[in-house]
């Protein structure tokens, strides 16, 4: 039975040695690792001679620390070898206990001098923290469970470090569950989880860090071909992730300033710049609600109360003539709004329901793209096990459908332009140009801003319900919390697309600002169509060309790449630069918007149920998808590492958006005139209709769902497509649930309220003019379900200008 006992002993002591080798105090013990057992008298002599030996200690620190793990392991093996080999299974527990005590005594005698030295040199530590640290050290010597948990819960050197794994979470829950009661001498304290950032000294960062680029030039040096060369190549990504992260567990009464001096002294021999995270996690610290959270709770409470009252009112007071205040309350009725959500559209000769399918498929594709981008590449790629793996993924050909899907958002701009002219131009003809522009703008704001307020309220509140170590990371806190606390009003004013990404509250909302600004420009263009069609066509074309030239100039002036490429996964500073100057600004998207205006005008002037010969549709059906796919797959070779030229960057960045919409134009046009065949049947399927009506809420909410899924993780994860596809499916489902909540609390009630305000309680007036006032958001085309089909659009000719103009004749 002796062999099993020695095996148990050796295994246990190796575990203890690993624990001690990664703990703060036991690593620093290496300053005196050559000393023999020390008594209290020896400690006093050491402190007296500390000043004179300080320089020599610093010189020997690095050498002795390198031998620390070997020394511990040798002592374990030697000590186990001294144990008698004739123990029985009944004595295993006694042997373990004896081994723990003996090894702890040996290690304690060698650690104590360093503890005394650190306490002598660091004088600005608070008294409470000092007591907690010494109590933890003494309790560890006594093998008390809570003290061992402090060491065990800390992050260690992660496995896969040579492959680019730069984060070790440790055990978050184990740390937070530590609770040390008051023993009469020291105050009670508990575990507090913080991030430790270790920043090695690096050469000056180049403008763009390339994949496989070495941090150091090791050619012709002894380090060439060694593991150091591999590390120099792998850790070029450290410029983006910022630091090596380790989760540490400290006593709750220790402040950041108390622990930092210990970290500095500990890492000084290794030339690391340690820093503790500004925020830490603790179960016992009550988080006070800030003003934004209080307002958010109040807003959601009021909306929920109105929802309940409106629903009850609809049940109890829905018979007979309703008074105005009853109609106001019933704007929040779940029953009424549910009927609007699921109502079947009336038959339309224009077959505009195909737009429902385009919207749903686009929002699903966009959600998958953002799931990969903001959950995998942007900001938090340090939570994955291998930076090398993260860099290889975008090199796949098929993955371009996700990685280079930035043109998807142009589909929404295209639809927005199409619907703007499709609704406004007949309205101008009917009213002979007398349309209140202020009412149009207010209509747009009322439809958009309440939902934006709702999603910002949810974004303020979800960190109260769930949390995780990623949320206390310094960079994440700036990205998620500070941007909303400081710049929420940018979203309300719809101007946030002109600011840096880190200054945008909910980064995806930049699109709503850009779309609103394009809508203001579209009013002038559509008026030009009303005054003179030739003038409208020319003006729309000129604006499109200006958009292309503006994108080309921006790409040249700011030295932008054609799009965001694989190389930028380790250059996040460039990603923010590109998003701000080459993507968010409004004029970049004028081209797709103008394409939508062209197609909308052509739809208005195409006869009902116009059928094109099948022979003439073959080539367009081949060319259109090819055009769209070429925009996506064109970046494949660039993602392989081929450096794009300046000219190719300018051409792609300026033309790709408009080319994408040119390919989309044919599909949209042919389906909307009823000649789309099987494609039109799929896109017009009734299942798409309610999902399409929720797509505005899905776009708003999907980013919050991504934050909740990815930013509450407590351990590193393998970067796999299966992981992102499954989380993407969950994101889509939860986003639709959250979109439904926004729909019933904000979107539908305020749409009803707007109709009630503009049309009063005279239903006949409202029914007559409903089609005129419902200028539709690109993500809200429900007007097609209530469209008055008593009008027929035909082509006439203005005798003075000899150009086709839109006329409306009664059926």
Describe the structure.
The chain is mostly helical and 811 residues long. It contains 33 helices and seven strands. The strands form two sheets. Strands 1, 2, 3, 4 and 5 form a five-stranded mixed sheet that branches. The chain has a two-stranded antiparallel ribbon with strand order 6-7. A hairpin with a 6-residue loop joins strand 6 (791-797) and strand 7. Helix 1 (2-22) runs antiparallel to helix 5 (68-81). The termini are far apart. The model is unreliable at 1-73 and 761-811 (pLDDT under 50).
Compact description:
The chain is built from 33 helices and 7 strands. The chain is mainly alpha-helical and 811 residues long.
Rg, nearest Å: 33 Å
Total strand segments: 7
Number of helices: 33
Tell me, rounded to a whole number, the average pLDDT: 79
Give the end-to-end Cα distance, rounded to a whole number of Å. 102 Å
Summarize the biggest pleated sheet.
Answer: 5 strands, mixed
What class, by secondary structure content? mainly alpha
DSSP helix fraction: 55-70%
Please tell me what the overall shape is. Answer: globular
Strand content: 5-15%
Oligomer: single chain
Unreliable spans are: 1-73, 761-811
């Amino acid at each position: 039975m002796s062999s099993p006992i020695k095996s148990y002993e050796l295994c246990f002591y190796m575990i203890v040695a690993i624990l001690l080798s990664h703990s703060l105090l036991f690593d620093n013990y290496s300053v005196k690792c050559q000393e023999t057992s020390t008594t209290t008298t020896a400690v006093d002599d050491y402190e007296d001679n500390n000043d004179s030996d300080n320089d020599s200690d610093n010189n020997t620190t690095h050498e002795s620390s390198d031998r620390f793990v070997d020394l511990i392991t040798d002592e374990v093996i030697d000590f186990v070898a001294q144990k008698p080999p004739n123990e029985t299974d009944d004595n295993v527990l006694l042997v373990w206990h004896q081994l723990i005590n003996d090894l702890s005594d040996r290690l304690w005698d060698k650690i104590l001098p360093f503890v005394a030295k650190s306490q002598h040199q660091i004088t600005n530590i608070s008294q409470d923290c000092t007591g907690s640290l010494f109590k933890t050290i003494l309790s560890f010597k006594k093998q008390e469970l809570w003290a061992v948990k402090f060491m065990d819960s800390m992050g260690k050197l992660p496995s896969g470090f040579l492959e680019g794994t730069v984060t070790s979470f440790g055990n978050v829950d184990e740390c937070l569950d530590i609770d040390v009661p008051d023993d009469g001498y020291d105050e009670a304290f508990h575990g507090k989880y913080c991030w430790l950032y270790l920043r090695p000294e690096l050469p000056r960062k180049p403008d763009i860090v390339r994949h496989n680029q070495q941090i150091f030039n090791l050619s012709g040096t002894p380090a060439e071909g060694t593991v150091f060369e591999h590390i120099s190549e792998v850790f070029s990504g450290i410029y983006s992730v910022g630091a090596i992260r380790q989760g540490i567990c400290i006593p709750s009464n220790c402040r950041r300033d108390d622990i930092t001096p210990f970290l500095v002294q500990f890492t000084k021999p290794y030339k690391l710049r340690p820093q503790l995270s500004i925020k830490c996690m603790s179960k016992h610290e009550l988080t006070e609600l800030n003003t934004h959270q209080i307002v958010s709770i109040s807003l959601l409470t009021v909306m929920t109360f109105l929802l309940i009252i409106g629903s009850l009112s609809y049940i109890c007071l829905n018979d007979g003539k309703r008074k105005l205040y009853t109609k106001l309350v019933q704007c929040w009725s779940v029953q009424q709004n549910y009927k609007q959500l699921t109502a079947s559209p009336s038959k339309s000769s224009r077959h505009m329901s195909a737009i429902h399918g385009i919207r749903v498929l686009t929002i699903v594709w966009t959600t998958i793209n953002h799931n990969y981008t903001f959950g995998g590449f942007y900001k938090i790629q340090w939570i994955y096990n291998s930076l090398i793996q993260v860099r290889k993924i975008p090199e796949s050909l098929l993955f371009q459908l996700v990685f280079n899907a930035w043109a998807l958002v142009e589909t929404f701009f295209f639809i927005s332009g199409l619907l703007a002219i499709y609704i406004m131009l007949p309205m101008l003809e009917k009213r002979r140009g007398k349309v209140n522009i202020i009412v149009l703008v207010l209509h747009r704001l009322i439809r958009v801003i309440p939902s934006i307020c709702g999603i910002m309220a949810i974004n303020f509140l979800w960190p109260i319900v769930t949390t995780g170590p990623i949320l206390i990371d310094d960079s994440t806190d700036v990205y998620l919390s500070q941007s909303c606390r400081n710049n929420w009003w940018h979203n309300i004013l719809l101007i946030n697309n002109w600011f840096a990404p880190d200054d945008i509250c909910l980064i995806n909302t930049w699109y709503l600002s850009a779309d609103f600004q394009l809508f203001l420009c579209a009013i002038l263009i559509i008026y030009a169509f009303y005054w003179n069609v030739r003038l409208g066509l020319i003006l729309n074309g000129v604006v499109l060309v200006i958009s292309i030239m503006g994108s080309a100039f921006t790409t040249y002036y700011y030295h932008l790449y054609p799009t965001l490429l694989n190389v930028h996964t380790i250059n996040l500073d460039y990603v923010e630069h590109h998003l701000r100057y080459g993507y968010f600004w409004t004029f970049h998207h004028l081209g797709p918007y103008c394409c939508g205006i062209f197609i909308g005008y052509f739809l208005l002037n195409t006869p009902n149920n116009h059928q094109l010969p099948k022979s003439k549709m073959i080539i367009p059906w081949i060319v259109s998808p090819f055009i769209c796919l070429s925009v996506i797959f064109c970046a494949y070779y660039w993602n392989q590492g081929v450096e794009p030229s300046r000219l190719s960057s300018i051409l792609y960045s300026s033309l790709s958006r408009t080319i994408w919409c040119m390919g989309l134009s044919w599909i949209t046009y042919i389906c909307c005139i009823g000649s789309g065949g099987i494609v039109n049947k799929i896109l017009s399927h009734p299942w798409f209709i309610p999902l399409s009506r929720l797509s505005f809420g899905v776009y708003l909410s999907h980013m919050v769902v991504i934050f909740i899924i990815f930013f509450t993780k407590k351990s590193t994860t393998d970067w796999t497509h299966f992981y992102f596809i499954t989380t993407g499916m969950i994101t889509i489902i939860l986003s639709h649930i959250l979109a439904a909540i926004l729909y019933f609390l904000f979107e539908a009630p305020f749409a009803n309220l707007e109709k009630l305000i503009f049309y009063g309680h005279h239903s006949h007036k409202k029914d007559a003019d409903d089609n005129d006032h419902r200028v539709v958001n690109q993500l809200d085309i429900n007007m097609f379900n209530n469209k008055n089909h008593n009008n027929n659009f035909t082509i006439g000719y203005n005798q003075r200008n000899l150009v086709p103009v839109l006329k409306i004749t009664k059926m």
